[in-house]
Amino acid sequence: MNWLIFALAAPIIYTIVNFTDKYVIEREVPDARSVPIFLAIVQGTVGAILWLVNGRITYPLDITLLIMATGASIVIGTFLLFRALIREETSRIVLWTQLVPVVILVLSVLILDEVLTIPQFVGFVLILSATVGLSLKREAGVLSFSRTFFYVLGAVITWSVSDILMKWIIVNNPQLEAIQGDTVNVSVFVSITTYQALGFAFGGLCFYLAVPPVRHAFNHRLRHTRRLALGVLFANESIFILRQFVKTMALALGPIALVSVLDSTRIFLGIAVGWVLTQIAPTIFRETTTREGLMQKLIFASVLFAGLIFIFAFGTGGG
């Protein structure tokens, strides 16, 4: 299998998911509290189907619960992401989410005792500088942080913790290693994706039961949401699960540094697609279309991309 096909497909699929999410929250389900529960239902359904199709693979209970925990923790991040999507341009949120490798680096140093290399530190500074620049807004002549940025930051931290936990699980459980020499065990990838999806569903159920405003919002939206919207949600979340599988395959088959850099090209895809969609449906997407606004995003995106190259391409040695 050609890793490059997977590596190029992953950012394209994710860009489609991002802007479909924006459409959903703007037009179909305009309530960030209810969306994670809808998505949890989809994840649970797809997870159950994958479990049956993939031969009903099982692992020891402790491993299964840990994998599911990585999926369950993503529910909070999803809730925060949709809170941000209501308030901000999708392309800007895509740029902010590039903080994920920075947070993972910090957590890896603190939790996994990994060593931060000089190129990684340079990348850390570049990404942090660009995200801070993108987050500052001038209001009444005073510079202040965008409130929406903190929603995205919360989501990024949640996703990063999930990634670190998943890495720890795989490192400490050889049966989850899908690469044996030149052989790729696709069923292992699918089984991990399956249990993460089921974990997301369980996390959504807990969120629904434990948070009354979320429960009331979902019950209300369930009665008033069109069947078409439910179909869009199901299709988009299924595509997101596909993206997770595609990226995992790319990382398994190809050089991790290059795959990660190619995946980061979605920051430029987000700007371009956002501009096009705003021309088509300006009341839904509302992206910046002025030359000054586009140049600002492109400059910060370039700084971000340079930082990601330092982290992924140059930052793997040493330590």
Outline the fold blueprint.
Blueprint: H1 3-28, H2 35-53, H3 61-87, H4 90-96, H5 100-111, H6 118-135, E1 136-139, E2 142-145, H7 147-171, E3 179-180, E4 183-184, H8 186-210, H9 212-224, H10 227-253, H11 256-263, H12 266-280, H13 282-285, H14 291-312
Helix pairs in contact: 1-10, 1-11, 1-12, 2-8, 2-10, 3-7, 3-8, 4-12, 5-7, 6-14, 8-9, 8-10, 10-11, 11-14
Low-confidence stretches: none
How many discrete structural domains? 1
| Rg measurement, Å | 19 Å
Gross morphology is globular
Strand content: under 5%
Order of helices and strands: HHHHHHEEHEEHHHHHHH
Strand order of the largest sheet: 1-2
Describe the protein's architecture and organization.
It is a single chain. The chain is mainly alpha-helical and 319 residues long. It has one domain (3-312). The strands form two sheets. A two-stranded antiparallel sheet has the order 1-2. The protein has a two-stranded antiparallel ribbon with strand order 3-4. The protein has helices spanning 3-28, 35-53, 61-87, 90-96, 100-111, 118-135, 147-171, 186-210, 212-224, 227-253, 256-263, 266-280, 282-285, 291-312; strands spanning 136-139, 142-145, 179-180, 183-184. The longest helix has 27 residues, at 61-87. It contains 14 helices and four strands. α1 packs parallel to α11 (256-263), α3 (61-87) packs antiparallel against α7 and α11 runs antiparallel to α14 (291-312).
Characteristic terms for this protein:
319 residues; mainly alpha; two-stranded antiparallel sheet; two-stranded antiparallel ribbon; 14 helices; 4 strands
